[in-house]
Design brief:
Layout (H helix, E strand, L loop, with lengths): L11 H22 L5 H13 L4 H12 L6 H21 L4 H13 L7 H21 L4 H13 L5 H14 L4 H11 L8 H21 L4 H11 L3 E4 L2 E4 L5 H17 L4 H9 L1 H11 L2 H42 L1
Antiparallel strand pairs: 1-2
């Protein structure tokens, strides 16, 4: 493809390993289909999910096997649960973003009480779990699964502290403005802990959040994650609580006008940055402000049309430059292969 030759890139040893794993998987699925909950079947399934953590069906089998142990001696159940947590940990080290393995861990924590495992042991499970999430995020600060799991586990354990989460997200954002997970969980936790009626505290918070975003925009104008968070703020920072959606901030016209001016200043400095342009036309509040500020509806439509037209030109230039780069890469690859 594109003039570049491709081999399999897989050694004979790796092909042999994959073939063996495929055969083990086939046998494991057969055992599951037969409803075989024997120790031999459990051991076979354990090997497969450790090597392939994305196999939902076999994780379901493991839950069936674990539930079949209900009523066994407490010491044995604690040992089995610890072994199972270690198994999922090994699986996640192989693939830190395996949905099925993360979901199995949540199930283990939630089901421990139903299996009559004592409170002290369950508390230990949660403490180890939060430590695991911390280690995972040290390995990859953008790992959305680890962020989500940490949030779920802390809530199940009754140890969820929104202020601490917000503080932690600030550390991660300062290290990498493009960390989407950090921006997202900042938005999830920001509303908690601040009284909705405390206008002074809310105005101060909004000002601090915008200042933080300014740093991100001027450091990296194309940081998509920061711009998404900015749009959320401009829309009042909506959040869901008590069965309804509310806005954290009461966004005033003067504030929006100031932000639109700031977007324009950034466009003047970085004319090829698309995010401030898109922000100017995407915000529902902004269009109302534009109408009141610059005149008639037809004038507003013309104003927005010109912005979109500029954006299309920019995207077209990016597309062309990308095509040229791909052609150069293809040509370079062809010369290397024929040289």
């Amino acid at each position: 493809m594109h003039g570049i030759g491709h081999g399999t890139g897989i050694s004979s040893e790796e092909l042999s390993r994959l073939s063996s794993l495929s055969e083990l998987g086939r046998r494991a699925h057969e055992r599951r289909g037969e409803g075989d909950l024997s120790d031999a079947a459990e051991s076979l399934v354990r090997k497969v999910v450790e090597a392939n953590p994305d196999d939902y069906t076999l994780w379901n089998y493991r839950r069936e096997w674990l539930l079949s142990l209900k009523g066994d001696a407490h010491d044995r159940l604690v040992k089995v649960w610890n072994d199972e947590l270690r198994l999922t940990e090994k699986a996640l080290l192989r693939n830190p973003k395996a949905y099925a393995a993360w979901q199995h861990r949540v199930w283990l924590l939630a089901e421990a009480e139903g299996m009559d495992i004592d409170l002290a042991t369950r508390t230990g499970f949660f403490e180890k779990e939060l430590a695991l999430c911390s280690n995972m995020l040290k390995m990859d600060a953008r790992n959305f699964h680890a962020w989500a799991h940490s949030e779920r586990v802390s809530k199940i354990a009754g140890k969820h502290e929104p202020a601490r989460v917000v503080e932690y997200t600030e550390q991660q954002i300062n290290a990498d403005f493009s960390n989407y997970s950090a921006w997202h969980y900042r938005s999830v936790n920001l509303a908690e802990g601040i009284p909705a009626e405390d206008d002074t505290a809310l105005d101060k918070l909004l000002s601090e959040e915008v200042d933080r975003l300014r740093q991100a925009f001027y450091t990296d104008p194309d940081s998509q994650s920061a711009w998404f968070y900015y749009r959320w703020l401009l829309n009042g920072a909506p959040y869901y609580s008590g069965g309804k959606t509310s806005d954290l901030f009461n966004i005033k016209d003067e504030f929006l006008k100031d932000e639109l001016k700031a977007c324009q200043e950034l466009i003047d400095l970085e004319p090829n940055s698309k995010w401030p342009l898109l922000t100017k036309v995407h915000e529902p509040h902004q269009n109302c402000i534009t109408a009141r500020t610059i005149g008639t509806a037809s004038f507003v439509l013309s104003h927005l049309y010109n912005i979109y037209k500029k954006q299309l030109r920019m995207d077209s230039c990016h597309e062309k430059s990308g095509t040229v780069a791909r052609k150069r890469s293809s040509s370079f690859g062809s010369r290397r292969l024929s040289g």
